[in-house]
Amino acid sequence: MAKQIKAIQCPKCGSPQKTQLQLDTYRCDSCGTEYFLDTDAITLNVRQLPPVAPPRPAMAPVPARNIRWALILAGTVLLWSLGAYLWEHHQRVATTELQPDLLMTGRLERESPSAWRSAESALVPGAGGQPLLVLAGGHTVPGQYTYTATVAFYDARTGKLRQRVDLGSGR
Q1: Residue pair 147/170 in contact by the 8 Å Cβ criterion
Q2: Does the reported pTM lie above 0.70?
Q3: Which residues contact 169 (CB under 8 A, 6 or more apart)?
């Protein structure tokens, strides 16, 4: 629809002299009549907003008494759990049979304290299920300064040497 431009005149006296008071509201400077512009537009502008959720009620503060009881309960559960763990650990250690170290108890005869260098040991089953202690490392004869890579097999029950195999010499 086309719009027409018309001069705005006072509806009472017809004077074009006016002062704007608000948007589309005027006052005639001649007679003082206030009037507004009426647009014949039929267009309606509707603005739809999403519904506003009601405000959440404020949460009441938790009394300090409840916090104290919760901390006491948590501390009790923690201490009980720690005590149960330590008791179970103590029972496990008490029931485990410890095997004596043949080298430390002196049941394994070594040539001298400096005879083995960087030795590793392992307990393995031998012939007929008899346990064997296998020592592997650098071995030397007292008075010599060279080490030989050696593997030695000892009877794990008596500590006596069964066999020694020299693999080669090194430094």
Answers
A1: yes
A2: no
A3: 146, 147, 148, 149
**pLDDT higher than threshold 90 for residue 80:** yes
Distance, CA of 110 to CA of 29 (rounded, Å)? 128
The answer to whether 12 and 33 are in contact (CB under 8 A) is yes
3-state DSSP of the chain: CCCCCCCCCCCCCCCCCEEEEECCEEEECCCCCEEECCCCCCCCCCCCCCCCCCCCCCCCCCCHHHHHHHHHHHHHHHHHHHHHHHHHHHHHHHHCCCCCCHHHHCCCCCCCCCCEEEEEEEEEECHHHCEEEEEEEEECCCCCCCEEEEEEEEECCCCCEEEEEEEEEEC
Do 37 and 8 contact (CB within 8 A), yes or no?
yes
User: For the chain, what are the domain ranges?
Assistant: 9-48, 67-97, 102-170
Higher pLDDT, 6 or 105: 6
